[in-house]
Amino acid sequence: MNRRSPFFRIAALVMAGLSGFLAIIFSPLILSRLNRLDRGHWETLSNVGQAYGGISAILTALALIGVVASLFLQRHQAEIARTQAIRAFQLQMLALCLDRPETYYRVCCTDR
After folding, report:
1. 36 — alpha (psi -120 to 50), left (phi > 0) or beta?
2. 0.90 exceeded by the pTM?
3. Integer Cα distance of 44 and 110 in angstroms
4. Per residue in 31-75, pLDDT tens?
5. For residues 79 and 73, what is the distance between their CA atoms, to the nearest angstrom?
6. Residue 102 burial (CB < 10 Å; 0-12/13-18/19+)?
7. Domain spans of the chain?
8. Contact assessment for residue 28 and residue 45, using Cβ atoms and an 8 Å cutoff
9. Angle ∠(80,83,85) on CA atoms, nearest 5
């Protein structure tokens, strides 16, 4: 399998997201094991949990920036698609006029 295939990228993103989610969910248990805290020292873990508030605000701001950037890209792609559709229609009309000049010459090329 090609490492640059879309499937591999999506699978890697899902695995990274799942790993991050599990790390956040189990972080109190991990921290209690690392610091060898017993169940009575939840205040210390609570203070560590308060630190997540700042990180959460930063991650939320980054996510919002990503959403805004994707909206700008979508708008640009929609403009390109609209322009391409108009040009394709014009090309079809020109091909139709050139294929049947006796029918469409009066519509396309005469002064009114």
Report:
1. left
2. no
3. 86
4. 767 666 566 666 776 777 777 777 788 888 999 999 999 999 999
5. 10
6. exposed
7. 1-36
8. yes
9. 110
